[in-house]
Amino acid sequence: MNQDTDFLRQAIALAYANAERGGRPFGAVIVKDGKLIAQAVNEIVGTKDPTAHAELLAIRAASRYLDSASLEGCSVFASGHPCPMCMGAMRMAGIEAVTYAYSNEDADPFGLSTAEAYADLAKPFEEQSMRIRHLPVRLEGEPDLYARWQQRR
Amino acid sequence: MNQDTDFLRQAIALAYANAERGGRPFGAVIVKDGKLIAQAVNEIVGTKDPTAHAELLAIRAASRYLDSASLEGCSVFASGHPCPMCMGAMRMAGIEAVTYAYSNEDADPFGLSTAEAYADLAKPFEEQSMRIRHLPVRLEGEPDLYARWQQRR
Protein backbone atom coordinates (compact mmCIF):
# COMPACT_ATOMS: atom_id res chain seq x y z
CA MET A 1 0.00 0.00 0.00
CA ASN A 2 2.85 2.41 0.82
CA GLN A 3 4.44 1.61 -2.50
CA ASP A 4 1.11 2.24 -4.22
CA THR A 5 0.94 5.63 -2.54
CA ASP A 6 4.46 6.39 -3.78
CA PHE A 7 3.50 5.56 -7.37
CA LEU A 8 0.41 7.73 -7.06
CA ARG A 9 2.58 10.58 -5.74
CA GLN A 10 4.80 10.23 -8.80
CA ALA A 11 1.75 10.53 -11.07
CA ILE A 12 0.62 13.63 -9.17
CA ALA A 13 4.13 15.16 -9.33
CA LEU A 14 4.05 14.67 -13.13
CA ALA A 15 0.69 16.44 -13.23
CA TYR A 16 2.05 19.42 -11.24
CA ALA A 17 5.11 19.65 -13.50
CA ASN A 18 2.92 19.54 -16.61
CA ALA A 19 0.68 22.30 -15.28
CA GLU A 20 3.77 24.45 -14.59
CA ARG A 21 4.72 24.04 -18.27
CA GLY A 22 1.25 25.17 -19.40
CA GLY A 23 -0.11 21.66 -19.93
CA ARG A 24 -3.21 20.09 -18.47
CA PRO A 25 -2.84 18.87 -14.89
CA PHE A 26 -2.73 15.13 -15.48
CA GLY A 27 0.00 12.52 -15.12
CA ALA A 28 0.10 8.73 -15.08
CA VAL A 29 2.61 5.95 -14.42
CA ILE A 30 2.41 2.25 -15.23
CA VAL A 31 3.89 -0.38 -12.94
CA LYS A 32 4.64 -4.05 -13.54
CA ASP A 33 6.07 -6.41 -10.90
CA GLY A 34 6.65 -3.47 -8.58
CA LYS A 35 8.70 -1.57 -11.17
CA LEU A 36 7.74 1.65 -12.95
CA ILE A 37 7.85 0.85 -16.71
CA ALA A 38 6.17 3.90 -18.26
CA GLN A 39 5.06 7.43 -17.43
CA ALA A 40 3.33 10.21 -19.30
CA VAL A 41 1.57 13.55 -18.96
CA ASN A 42 -1.35 15.03 -20.82
CA GLU A 43 0.03 16.47 -24.08
CA ILE A 44 -3.12 17.88 -25.67
CA VAL A 45 -1.98 21.50 -25.37
CA GLY A 46 1.35 20.88 -27.10
CA THR A 47 0.19 18.40 -29.74
CA LYS A 48 -3.49 19.31 -30.35
CA ASP A 49 -4.09 15.54 -30.33
CA PRO A 50 -7.37 15.02 -28.44
CA THR A 51 -6.32 11.47 -27.53
CA ALA A 52 -3.06 12.60 -25.87
CA HIS A 53 -4.27 11.93 -22.33
CA ALA A 54 -1.68 10.89 -19.75
CA GLU A 55 -3.10 7.38 -19.33
CA LEU A 56 -3.36 6.71 -23.08
CA LEU A 57 0.21 7.90 -23.70
CA ALA A 58 1.43 5.83 -20.74
CA ILE A 59 -0.29 2.75 -22.21
CA ARG A 60 1.45 3.37 -25.53
CA ALA A 61 4.81 3.80 -23.78
CA ALA A 62 4.30 0.63 -21.73
CA SER A 63 3.45 -1.38 -24.85
CA ARG A 64 6.65 -0.15 -26.50
CA TYR A 65 8.64 -1.04 -23.36
CA LEU A 66 7.12 -4.53 -23.16
CA ASP A 67 7.04 -4.93 -26.96
CA SER A 68 3.50 -6.22 -26.53
CA ALA A 69 -0.05 -5.02 -27.10
CA SER A 70 -1.08 -6.84 -23.92
CA LEU A 71 -0.54 -5.05 -20.63
CA GLU A 72 -1.65 -7.95 -18.45
CA GLY A 73 -0.22 -7.76 -14.97
CA CYS A 74 0.26 -3.99 -15.24
CA SER A 75 -1.23 -1.36 -12.93
CA VAL A 76 -1.94 2.27 -13.77
CA PHE A 77 -1.56 5.09 -11.24
CA ALA A 78 -3.24 8.26 -12.49
CA SER A 79 -3.34 11.68 -10.87
CA GLY A 80 -7.00 12.16 -11.83
CA HIS A 81 -10.11 10.06 -12.43
CA PRO A 82 -9.55 8.48 -15.87
CA CYS A 83 -11.94 9.56 -18.65
CA PRO A 84 -14.14 7.04 -20.52
CA MET A 85 -11.64 6.78 -23.40
CA CYS A 86 -8.77 5.95 -21.06
CA MET A 87 -10.87 3.60 -18.94
CA GLY A 88 -11.83 1.73 -22.12
CA ALA A 89 -8.22 1.69 -23.33
CA MET A 90 -6.99 0.26 -20.02
CA ARG A 91 -9.73 -2.38 -19.95
CA MET A 92 -9.05 -3.39 -23.58
CA ALA A 93 -5.26 -3.56 -23.03
CA GLY A 94 -5.70 -5.95 -20.08
CA ILE A 95 -4.62 -3.56 -17.31
CA GLU A 96 -5.16 -5.26 -13.96
CA ALA A 97 -5.81 -2.28 -11.71
CA VAL A 98 -6.05 1.49 -11.84
CA THR A 99 -5.70 3.86 -8.88
CA TYR A 100 -6.39 7.59 -9.04
CA ALA A 101 -6.04 10.46 -6.57
CA TYR A 102 -8.20 13.37 -7.73
CA SER A 103 -11.87 12.57 -8.26
CA ASN A 104 -14.34 14.01 -10.75
CA GLU A 105 -15.87 15.87 -7.80
CA ASP A 106 -12.46 17.50 -7.18
CA ALA A 107 -12.24 18.34 -10.90
CA ASP A 108 -15.75 19.69 -11.43
CA PRO A 109 -15.22 23.27 -10.15
CA PHE A 110 -12.37 23.64 -12.66
CA GLY A 111 -14.25 22.25 -15.68
CA LEU A 112 -12.06 19.13 -15.67
CA SER A 113 -14.65 16.51 -14.69
CA THR A 114 -15.62 13.79 -17.15
CA ALA A 115 -18.74 12.83 -15.19
CA GLU A 116 -21.00 14.29 -17.88
CA ALA A 117 -19.28 12.27 -20.62
CA TYR A 118 -19.63 9.13 -18.48
CA ALA A 119 -23.35 9.77 -17.96
CA ASP A 120 -23.88 10.43 -21.67
CA LEU A 121 -21.98 7.32 -22.80
CA ALA A 122 -23.95 5.20 -20.32
CA LYS A 123 -27.22 6.00 -22.09
CA PRO A 124 -28.67 3.80 -24.85
CA PHE A 125 -27.03 4.74 -28.17
CA GLU A 126 -30.18 6.45 -29.47
CA GLU A 127 -30.27 8.84 -26.49
CA GLN A 128 -26.63 9.98 -26.52
CA SER A 129 -25.52 13.44 -27.61
CA MET A 130 -23.29 11.94 -30.33
CA ARG A 131 -25.47 10.42 -33.08
CA ILE A 132 -24.69 6.69 -33.39
CA ARG A 133 -26.04 4.78 -36.40
CA HIS A 134 -25.77 1.19 -37.57
CA LEU A 135 -26.07 0.88 -41.37
CA PRO A 136 -25.44 -2.76 -42.35
CA VAL A 137 -23.69 -1.86 -45.61
CA ARG A 138 -21.70 -4.63 -47.35
CA LEU A 139 -19.36 -4.62 -50.36
CA GLU A 140 -21.01 -6.60 -53.16
CA GLY A 141 -19.26 -9.71 -54.47
CA GLU A 142 -16.92 -9.93 -51.48
CA PRO A 143 -16.84 -12.70 -48.85
CA ASP A 144 -17.81 -11.65 -45.34
CA LEU A 145 -15.17 -9.23 -44.00
CA TYR A 146 -14.53 -11.07 -40.75
CA ALA A 147 -14.61 -14.53 -42.34
CA ARG A 148 -12.05 -13.29 -44.85
CA TRP A 149 -9.84 -12.01 -42.01
CA GLN A 150 -10.08 -15.37 -40.25
CA GLN A 151 -9.01 -17.17 -43.44
CA ARG A 152 -5.99 -14.89 -43.87
CA ARG A 153 -4.65 -15.09 -40.33
CA MET B 1 -27.65 9.15 -47.29
CA ASN B 2 -26.05 7.86 -50.52
CA GLN B 3 -22.93 9.85 -49.72
CA ASP B 4 -22.94 8.38 -46.21
CA THR B 5 -23.13 4.89 -47.71
CA ASP B 6 -20.17 5.73 -49.94
CA PHE B 7 -18.07 6.85 -46.95
CA LEU B 8 -19.01 3.68 -45.12
CA ARG B 9 -17.97 1.62 -48.15
CA GLN B 10 -14.59 3.36 -48.08
CA ALA B 11 -14.15 2.42 -44.43
CA ILE B 12 -15.07 -1.20 -45.23
CA ALA B 13 -12.70 -1.28 -48.23
CA LEU B 14 -9.90 -0.11 -45.90
CA ALA B 15 -10.78 -2.94 -43.51
CA TYR B 16 -10.60 -5.54 -46.31
CA ALA B 17 -7.26 -4.17 -47.51
CA ASN B 18 -5.87 -4.27 -43.95
CA ALA B 19 -7.01 -7.88 -43.50
CA GLU B 20 -5.28 -8.82 -46.77
CA ARG B 21 -2.05 -7.39 -45.33
CA GLY B 22 -2.43 -9.45 -42.15
CA GLY B 23 -3.91 -6.65 -40.06
CA ARG B 24 -7.15 -6.65 -38.11
CA PRO B 25 -10.27 -6.11 -40.24
CA PHE B 26 -11.11 -2.55 -39.25
CA GLY B 27 -11.05 0.76 -41.11
CA ALA B 28 -12.43 4.23 -40.46
CA VAL B 29 -12.74 7.54 -42.29
CA ILE B 30 -13.56 10.99 -40.94
CA VAL B 31 -15.64 13.49 -42.91
CA LYS B 32 -16.15 17.23 -42.44
CA ASP B 33 -18.42 19.37 -44.63
CA GLY B 34 -18.92 16.45 -47.00
CA LYS B 35 -15.17 15.98 -47.50
CA LEU B 36 -13.02 13.06 -46.37
CA ILE B 37 -10.28 14.56 -44.16
CA ALA B 38 -8.73 11.47 -42.52
CA GLN B 39 -8.63 7.70 -42.82
CA ALA B 40 -6.96 4.90 -40.91
CA VAL B 41 -6.86 1.16 -40.36
CA ASN B 42 -6.24 -0.91 -37.25
CA GLU B 43 -2.46 -1.05 -36.78
CA ILE B 44 -2.18 -3.18 -33.63
CA VAL B 45 -0.55 -6.13 -35.43
CA GLY B 46 2.20 -4.00 -36.96
CA THR B 47 2.82 -1.65 -34.04
CA LYS B 48 1.88 -3.70 -30.95
CA ASP B 49 0.20 -0.50 -29.73
CA PRO B 50 -3.09 -1.60 -28.11
CA THR B 51 -4.60 1.84 -28.75
CA ALA B 52 -3.93 1.69 -32.53
CA HIS B 53 -7.58 1.14 -33.45
CA ALA B 54 -8.76 2.53 -36.80
CA GLU B 55 -11.07 5.11 -35.22
CA LEU B 56 -8.45 6.36 -32.73
CA LEU B 57 -5.80 6.72 -35.44
CA ALA B 58 -8.33 8.48 -37.71
CA ILE B 59 -9.12 10.92 -34.88
CA ARG B 60 -5.42 11.65 -34.49
CA ALA B 61 -5.03 12.15 -38.26
CA ALA B 62 -8.06 14.46 -38.40
CA SER B 63 -6.73 16.58 -35.54
CA ARG B 64 -3.43 16.95 -37.39
CA TYR B 65 -5.29 17.89 -40.60
CA LEU B 66 -7.47 20.46 -38.81
CA ASP B 67 -4.63 21.55 -36.49
CA SER B 68 -7.14 21.33 -33.65
CA ALA B 69 -7.96 19.04 -30.75
CA SER B 70 -11.65 19.69 -31.39
CA LEU B 71 -13.35 17.63 -34.06
CA GLU B 72 -16.69 19.42 -33.84
CA GLY B 73 -18.70 19.09 -37.04
CA CYS B 74 -16.87 15.89 -37.99
CA SER B 75 -18.46 12.49 -38.64
CA VAL B 76 -16.82 9.10 -38.31
CA PHE B 77 -17.60 6.18 -40.62
CA ALA B 78 -16.26 2.93 -39.18
CA SER B 79 -16.34 -0.55 -40.71
CA GLY B 80 -17.17 -2.12 -37.34
CA HIS B 81 -18.96 -1.24 -34.12
CA PRO B 82 -16.53 1.07 -32.26
CA CYS B 83 -15.08 -0.24 -29.00
CA PRO B 84 -15.56 1.62 -25.68
CA MET B 85 -12.16 3.35 -25.96
CA CYS B 86 -12.96 4.69 -29.43
CA MET B 87 -16.51 5.63 -28.50
CA GLY B 88 -15.12 7.61 -25.55
CA ALA B 89 -12.43 9.21 -27.73
CA MET B 90 -15.01 10.30 -30.32
CA ARG B 91 -17.34 11.69 -27.66
CA MET B 92 -14.52 13.59 -25.92
CA ALA B 93 -13.19 15.03 -29.22
CA GLY B 94 -16.60 16.45 -30.09
CA ILE B 95 -17.40 14.11 -33.00
CA GLU B 96 -20.97 14.81 -34.18
CA ALA B 97 -21.98 11.41 -35.52
CA VAL B 98 -20.60 7.93 -35.98
CA THR B 99 -21.92 5.32 -38.43
CA TYR B 100 -20.77 1.71 -38.52
CA ALA B 101 -21.53 -1.26 -40.80
CA TYR B 102 -20.57 -4.49 -38.99
CA SER B 103 -22.21 -5.00 -35.60
CA ASN B 104 -20.89 -6.72 -32.49
CA GLU B 105 -23.29 -9.56 -33.33
CA ASP B 106 -21.54 -9.91 -36.72
CA ALA B 107 -18.17 -9.86 -34.93
CA ASP B 108 -18.94 -12.26 -32.11
CA PRO B 109 -18.39 -15.58 -33.96
CA PHE B 110 -14.88 -14.39 -34.85
CA GLY B 111 -13.90 -13.21 -31.37
CA LEU B 112 -14.00 -9.57 -32.50
CA SER B 113 -16.98 -8.33 -30.48
CA THR B 114 -16.50 -5.71 -27.76
CA ALA B 115 -19.92 -6.38 -26.23
CA GLU B 116 -18.33 -8.00 -23.17
CA ALA B 117 -16.05 -4.99 -22.57
CA TYR B 118 -19.07 -2.69 -22.90
CA ALA B 119 -21.04 -4.74 -20.37
CA ASP B 120 -18.10 -4.80 -17.94
CA LEU B 121 -17.43 -1.06 -18.19
CA ALA B 122 -21.13 -0.33 -17.63
CA LYS B 123 -21.00 -1.91 -14.17
CA PRO B 124 -20.30 0.10 -11.00
CA PHE B 125 -16.53 0.50 -10.59
CA GLU B 126 -16.38 -1.95 -7.69
CA GLU B 127 -17.94 -4.73 -9.78
CA GLN B 128 -15.73 -4.43 -12.88
CA SER B 129 -13.05 -6.98 -13.82
CA MET B 130 -10.38 -4.25 -13.73
CA ARG B 131 -9.80 -3.13 -10.13
CA ILE B 132 -10.55 0.60 -9.84
CA ARG B 133 -9.50 2.44 -6.67
CA HIS B 134 -9.75 6.03 -5.50
CA LEU B 135 -6.99 6.95 -3.05
CA PRO B 136 -7.24 10.69 -2.26
CA VAL B 137 -3.47 11.15 -1.96
CA ARG B 138 -2.14 14.75 -1.99
CA LEU B 139 1.38 16.18 -2.13
CA GLU B 140 2.09 17.93 1.17
CA GLY B 141 2.82 21.65 1.14
CA GLU B 142 1.49 22.11 -2.39
CA PRO B 143 -1.56 24.14 -3.43
CA ASP B 144 -4.44 22.14 -4.87
CA LEU B 145 -3.35 20.66 -8.22
CA TYR B 146 -6.30 21.91 -10.23
CA ALA B 147 -6.34 25.36 -8.56
CA ARG B 148 -2.63 25.67 -9.40
CA TRP B 149 -3.38 24.74 -13.03
CA GLN B 150 -6.13 27.36 -13.21
CA GLN B 151 -3.74 30.02 -11.88
CA ARG B 152 -1.10 29.12 -14.49
CA ARG B 153 -3.35 29.12 -17.57
What overall form of chain A do the CA principal axes indicate?
globular
> What helical percentage do the residues of chain A reach?
40-55%
- Work out the oligomeric state of the chains in this entry: homodimer
Radius of gyration of chain A: 18 Å
Largest interface: A-B, 83 and 83 residues
How many β-strand stretches of chain A? Answer: 5
Assess the beta-strand content of chain A as a share of residues: 15-25%
Helix count of chain A, per DSSP? 7
Q: Could you report the average pLDDT of chain A, rounded to the nearest whole number?
A: 97
Q: What class would the helix/strand composition of chain A place it in?
A: alpha+beta
Order of helices and strands of chain A: HEEHHEHEHHEH
Query: What is the distance, rounded to the nearest whole angstrom, between the alpha carbons of the first and last residues of chain A?
Result: 43 Å
Low-confidence stretches of chain A: none
- Order of strands, main sheet of chain A, comes to 2-1-3-4
For the sheet with most strands of chain A, the description reads: 4 strands, mixed
